[in-house]
Automatic annotation (TrEMBL):
Keyword Lipoprotein: no
SUPFAM superfamilies registered for this protein in UniProt: Eukaryotic type KH-domain (KH-domain type I), Tudor/PWWP/MBT
Region (Disordered): 358-382
GO MF annotation: an example: RNA binding
InterPro entries, sorted: KH-I_AKAP1 (IPR047368), KH_dom (IPR004087), KH_dom_type_1 (IPR004088), KH_dom_type_1_sf (IPR036612), SNase_OB-fold_sf (IPR035437), Tudor (IPR002999), Tudor_AKAP1 (IPR047367), Tudor_domain_containing (IPR050621)
Comp. bias intervals (Polar residues): 361-376
Transmembrane segments: none
UniProt protein name: Tudor domain-containing protein
Species lineage: Eukaryota, Metazoa, Ecdysozoa, Nematoda, Chromadorea
A Pfam match: KH_1
Native organism: Haemonchus placei (Barber's pole worm)
Amino acid sequence: NHNLAEVQQEYATTNTSQINSFYVSSQDSGRATGGLASSLSPMDEAGDVLPMYEFEIPNTLVGLVIGIKGKTIKELSSRTDVRMLIRQHHTPEKVDTHQICQVRGKREQINRCLQMLRRRFPPARFPELNLQPVLPPPLASNLFDALASQPSWLTLPDAIPCEVVCSSVIDPGHFFLQQPTHPSFSSLSHLDMYMIRLYSQGTDIPDLPKPCQTGLLCAAPVLGAWFRAVTVSYYPESDEVMLRFVDYGGYTRLPRSELRQIRTDLMSLPFQAIECYLAHVQPVDGTWQWGEAAFAHFQKLCMGKVINATVVGFNVQDKVPMVELTVLDEEGKVSTYVPIRVDKDLMEAGFAKASDPSKLQKVTSTKGRPLSTNPTPMVAAV
């Protein structure tokens, strides 16, 4: 489990150039919708995520592929600009007969490496080397601290301050939060790495059915990686799907043909991103459009650090939680922190004004939590 001090240290060292989300305009909502935020992805340290291809090598050929003092594998790697690794097979029945060769690089570089390998080991002489992709094994259930038989959404407690990080920002009044001290959070990096291995192989994992239903859990490609997402809207005229990313938050629109069905072993980890609205404020001009300066101010205040969120109510229309955000911000001296309420700070900076209080259904001890806006998604599973 992450403790708060570890999490604060981790996000204090986040490269600010990696904090920005990418954005895609929603054609059905009339407002800009945020894409997947990269700031909290474990892929950040690796920079651009490179595709990976894995195939089997019979033990009888491993020495030839490596070459004397590694000459062959080094030459293949340098000439095609890939990274090659030979490791033990993950299937117990094949440990004594085969090993796995992993090739990592850009797609065209991987193809060039495989072509060179095929020329050096022609199928007529080496029929046992087929270069067919091998899927990684299913995730072990003990990787996850919190298992569920059905996909589940994490929530924030009512009226109790909770340590969070902001993983995706649509605008200063609409964002997604993660709970880095939740027991399941540490398993997210395992899931991210595993999905890259599984879905970047180019294997025959089926895409989503056409026409595509809404509320369908799937795997979606983003910047070379793959992430869990749920379908929100389907556009039959263009065969595109509006998606919501369930672990990092944000929305984007992608062709249905680029989406893939999801394996059942990828559904145990609770969905990490919690969609929220900022309580008490709206844009200063009375519209629903926040300006770029307000957006930049919010990002500087909230991104890349641990902050506190308190659920004070729910939006009366869509039941999305409305939260107060509190930031501990340095002021002058080292180790001197002053708590800042984000809604009040936006008003003082001239970016926001008080919102209509009737839009907020307050949390009380006698009222139950309203029905969730996050129903259990259906699953297109393989």
